[in-house]
């Protein structure tokens, strides 16, 4: 299984990155940090068609499974990842052929937050988007990080996340 991780966080060396690093070490997945890419808000006029979104999708289309990694910011995915998701609309308009290359792939989610439980409203956009894009949603893994010992447990959480990859 050829796995890519798309990470969207405001802290490049933060909690989510730490969990993703453990996951990458465990699974051998390729990491794409949205902070390394210049991807702007969805534009109905597609004036941003030359930014890094389409090249990133071309790279991702080579993988069988995509893991989306995000902290919980105000019960939602990070703004970085939301901008990426909005841009999926480019694949339904100006890049339909490229969009079809995502069909049949599977996706999962890795998230970190402070609260003990991951709210349903966080995970729903991933599940519904997968359905809309004809991709399989295979599950999510959440690490609640409240103290140092929670960070020490990230290796075990990353191992759980690999079971969602197929
Ligand atoms: C702007 C902001 C909003 C947050 N909102 C939530 C939230 O709604 N629920 C939650 O459990 N944690 C929330 N947190 C805590 C983060 O999700 C948590 O610390 C996470 O592990 C940070 O990951 P990062 O280091 O990749 O940013 C928030 C943190 C920030 C900075």
TrEMBL record:
Question: What GO annotations for molecular function exist for this entry?
Answer: oxidoreductase activity
Q: What is the name of this protein?
A: NADPH-dependent FMN reductase
Q: Which SUPFAM superfamilies does this chain map to? A: Flavoproteins
Entry keywords, A to Z: Flavoprotein, FMN
Where does the NADPH-dependent FMN reductase-like domain lie? 1-114
Keyword Flavoprotein included in the entry's annotation: yes
Q: Pfam families this protein is in?
A: FMN_red
The record's annotation in Gene3D superfamilies points to: 3.40.50.360
- Entry keyword annotation includes Flavoprotein: yes
